[in-house]
Amino acid sequence: MIKVSISYFRSDDGCFDHDYYLSTHIPMVKEVLGDVCVRCEIDKGMFGAKSEQQAEVVAAVQLYVTSVDDFNEKFSVAQKAIIRDIKNYTNIMPSMQFSEVVSL
Question: 0.85 cut: is pTM over it?
């Protein structure tokens, strides 16, 4: 299994609409991926190492997918629409990372 992490790092002028992200954007992404997406987790940053520190990551999504190839095949179909939708919930440039999931 592969984990696709998409993170939004805090910036001084950054804004993020968590409600839109949860109710509209992520459901759109999950619909596009279909059964390739085995599991989806959303992170909403709370605070840093100490409760008085701001979280470095405002929001993130972890998409657990069957394979990189499967993800790329499904994502490529609607990539432009998904990217176009980003402006509806944030002005922060997302960071994407693929990881191999290892269970202990």
Answer: yes
